[in-house]
From TrEMBL:
SUPFAM superfamilies: Glyceraldehyde-3-phosphate dehydrogenase-like, C-terminal domain, NAD(P)-binding Rossmann-fold domains. Residues 47-168 form the Gfo/Idh/MocA-like oxidoreductase N-terminal domain. PROSITE patterns: TAT. PANTHER family: BCDNA.GH03377 (PTHR43818). This is Gfo/Idh/MocA family oxidoreductase. Keywords: Oxidoreductase. It holds the Pfam family GFO_IDH_MocA_C3.
Length: 354
């Protein structure tokens, strides 16, 4: 894809940390076959307006004047989410967006320039493919998908039409992560041989969503929500707590580790490892979840360094990232998205202090 059309960093700087994961859009990123003049407003459609989707709508609203952008159409299968999104965007822009239940209706709108996708992750790839087939640029929440064949189909649809797509690994757009990358690439750490990530949380993460008790089957479209998955009885827990179930999510790996490893690739200028091993299990929260609440993985890269990733949902031991080179170590404290970096120079061995 031609990323020269898109300046994601510029877009995100306005929102700083609040803007994590926002859609990177710029007038030049959109189809000029429709835009008649430079003063025309960029029209966005938004599919999936749950808790994450509401954040994205708020971010776009912050940029409505500086980027001349608005959300003009919203889509959600659950009536409650749809009505709330209409009300929020009416407040942002002084007029109500078009309200549509099914994605196909939104994608058929000719006056929508680009689409934001923030649905449950099992539908990311299928919806991105449909969006590309409709000829629209897109921002898609991460992960891009968790079924390889569906991911490839979406990718192929995008490339065939030379569209712009951004997947929401937002931390590489944050100024402090960019500064960390520049320091690493300056050679300040020397040769890096080990890169460690440990992000923890104490609690039954992703369980206990209040919407589980609010939704009624007649107020949504369960079959449409399942997308490519086999039909099963309506399950409000699955609907909102999908990250806990293997067929619909990889849990820690694609929700948290994806961010950590994306930063590793960004910092170290690598694309993928040549070896990965992982293990995990349900050791802390026996609440019916299928995905691990405790997880660890090791990655080996051809550049000559080892990466470890670890998460526990049973203990909030301090989270950190540690990048270890022959000259110095960079340490980040505070877990995902933290701006707190420090550098410690190598000054001999600890045995020298004895």
């Amino acid at each position: 894809m031609d990323t020269s059309k898109l300046n994601r960093r510029e877009f995100l700087q306005k929102g700083a940390r609040v803007a994590a994961g926002s859609a990177a859009l710029k007038t030049t990123a959109l189809s000029y076959s429709r835009i008649a003049g430079a003063n025309d407003r960029i029209s966005l459609g938004h599919i999936g307006i749950g808790s994450r989707g509401r954040e994205l709508d708020g971010i776009v609203a912050l940029l409505k004047d500086t980027k001349n952008v608005e959300v003009s159409a919203v889509c959600d299968l659950w009536t409650h989410n749809l009505e709330r999104a209409v009300a929020a965007n009416q407040k942002y822009y002084g007029k109500a967006p078009q309200a549509l239940k099914h994605p196909q209706e939104l994608l058929a709108l000719r006056d929508v320039d680009a689409v934001m996708i923030s649905t449950p992750e099992h539908s990311h790839s299928p919806l991105l493919k449909l969006t590309a087939e409709a000829g629209k640029d897109a921002y898609c929440e991460k992960p891009m998908g968790n079924v390889l064949e569906e991911v490839k189909a979406a990718r192929d649809a995008v490339l065939a039409r030379n569209l712009i797509v951004q997947v929401g690994t937002q931390h590489r757009s944050e100024p402090y992560q960019i500064a960390a990358r520049e320091l690493i690439r300056s050679g300040a750490l020397g040769d890096v041989s080990k890169y460690e990530i440990e992000w923890n949380y104490h609690g039954p993460r992703w369980r206990g969503r209040p919407e589980v008790k609010m939704i009624r089957e007649q107020d949504a479209d369960w079959r449409a929500w399942l997308m490519t998955k086999p039909l099963r009885p309506f399950d409000p827990q699955l609907y909102f707590e999908f990250r806990l179930y293997k067929e619909f999510s990889s849990g820690i790996a694609d929700q948290w580790m994806s961010h950590g490893i994306d930063l590793c690739h960004f910092f170290m200028d690598v694309d993928y490892p040549y070896s990965v091993v992982a293990n995990g299990g349900i050791f802390a929260w026996h609440d019916g979840r299928e995905n691990p609440d405790t997880f660890q993985a090791l990655f080996t890269y051809t550049n000559g360094f080892l990466v470890s990733y670890s998460t526990s949902f049973g203990n909030d031991s301090p989270s950190f990232t540690r990048i270890m080179g022959k000259k110095a170590t960079m340490i980040n404290t505070g877990g995902e998205g933290s701006p707190r970096w420090q550098i410690v120079e190598e000054k001999g061995n600890h045995e020298d202090d004895l």
